[in-house]
Amino acid sequence: MLIEVLAKFAGELEARNYRYALIGGLAASIRGRIRATEDIDLIVLCNLEEALNLVESLGDSGFSPLLENYEQVARSALLIPIIDRSSGIQLDLAIGLSGFEKDIVEVLGERFDWQYCLAAAKRLESAVDIDLVQQMKRLRPS
Question: Is the pTM of this model over 0.85?
Answer without folding.
Answer: no
